[in-house]
Amino acid sequence: MNIQGIHHIAILTDNYESSKRFYTEVLGFEIIRETYRAERQSYKLDLAIAGQYQVELFSFPEFRERGSYPEAKGLRHLAFAVDNVEAAAEELKAKNVRVEPIRIDEFTHK
User: Which residues pair with 30 in a beta bridge?
Assistant: First the structure.
């Protein structure tokens, strides 16, 4: 395989409006398209950042909790590249987002 990057990331949410606000208003993702699929009673929101990556945000009324532990609910994590991680954390805090302490990966040292 010759993998060139991330094509898209799919996220299932149980609170569509809150998640939509977080990705668009807090993180600044742009909406590519928003589709309501009546037969599934489900929204699909396609998002981009810097015109490169796509996040697919799904909502389903009959979602199931993930069954495995410790990855028990939703996406484990989503990492973004930023110029200054400390400044990015402060910006999120200013937007009332709970931010965990910045950690250094023991393997990559990043």
Answer: 48
38-75: pLDDT as tens digits: 888 889 899 998 888 788 888 877 766 666 655 445 66
Residue 47: beta bridge partners? 31, 55
Spatial distance between the Cα atoms of 48 and 55, rounded to a whole number of angstroms: 6
Q: How many helices (H) and strands (E) does the chain have?
A: 2, 4
Q: What is the secondary structure of 41-52 as a DSSP string?
A: TEEEEEEEETTT
- Which residue matches tokens 């990966």? 105
Beta bridge partners of 58: 12, 44
- Residue 95 CA to its chain's centroid (Å): 16
pTM: 0.69
Structure tokens, 32 = 């590519």
